[in-house]
UniProtKB/TrEMBL annotation:
Record InterPro entries: SAM-dependent_MTases_sf, SAM_O-MeTrfase
Pfam families to which the protein is assigned, alphabetical: Methyltransf_3 (PF01596)
Any one GO MF annotation of this record: O-methyltransferase activity
Swiss-Prot/TrEMBL keywords: Methyltransferase, S-adenosyl-L-methionine, Transferase
Family annotation (CDD domains): AdoMet_MTases
Organism whose genome encodes this protein: Acinetobacter tjernbergiae DSM 14971 = CIP 107465
Gene3D superfamilies according to UniProt: Vaccinia Virus protein VP39
SUPFAM superfamilies: S-adenosyl-L-methionine-dependent methyltransferases (SSF53335)
A single GO BP: methylation
Protein name: O-methyltransferase
Length: 195
């Protein structure tokens, strides 16, 4: 069960991140964390699906990472998170330590495409929340990581940045082995599963 202490601390952190983003005129300087409702839904999915192996592509400062780690803690799982920006990854690790969740998270720094090309073991849940221009190039590697029954891919920002993910969503729709749907939660989540 998610503790009241966790919920209060994560709410405070979310407010802190939102205030930071509001002060930044340059998009790349913003933390651009997932919305609170989206993060909560992901944590619920981890629990209901018993997702022991979770991959997050795009750590940023670790807001969603904390939600995922809190959820896998309840079922004895692990989170693998990828972030290209070493400073952001270090920030996320610091928050994980503050929340006492660092032992549930493996922080990987580098280009996600490199990690995805080398990874072979399937994940139960994958959150894709990175630079949207790379998504199409990730698809073949993502498919090999979604091969176990019940594996789920969640893509963030599909409503708020629909033009930027259009080609990627069309690629998924065209693949007869997968089905997908758009969930109007937060900035819009696309849920993808094997048929």
């Amino acid at each position: 069960m998610t503790s009241i202490v966790f919920l209060q601390r994560i709410a405070d952190l979310y407010d802190e991140f939102k205030q930071h983003d509001a002060r930044q005129s340059d998009r790349l300087r913003r933390y651009r964390n997932i919305e609170a409702e989206s993060a909560k839904l992901l944590a619920m999915l981890v629990r209901t699906q018993q997702s022991k192996r979770v991959l997050e592509i795009g750590t940023s400062t670790g807001y969603s990472t904390l939600w995922l780690a809190e959820a896998v803690k309840a079922i004895g799982g692990q989170v693998q998170t990828l972030e290209i920006n070493a400073f952001r990854s270090a920030q996320a690790k610091k928050y994980a330590e503050e929340f006492g969740l660092e032992n549930l998270i493996d922080f990987w720094v580098g280009d996600a495409s490199v990690y995805l090309q080398q990874a072979h073991e399937p994940f139960d849940l994958i959150l894709l929340d990175a630079e949207r221009g790379s998504y199409v190039s990730y698809w073949n590697d993502l498919k090999k990581l979604l091969q176990s029954s019940g594996s789920t891919l969640i893509v963030d920002n599909v409503i708020s940045h629909s033009a930027e993910v259009k080609d990627f969503l069309e690629l998924i729709k065209a693949d007869e082995n997968y089905m997908s749907t758009i969930l109007p939660v937060g900035a819009g989540l696309c849920m993808v599963v094997l048929k």
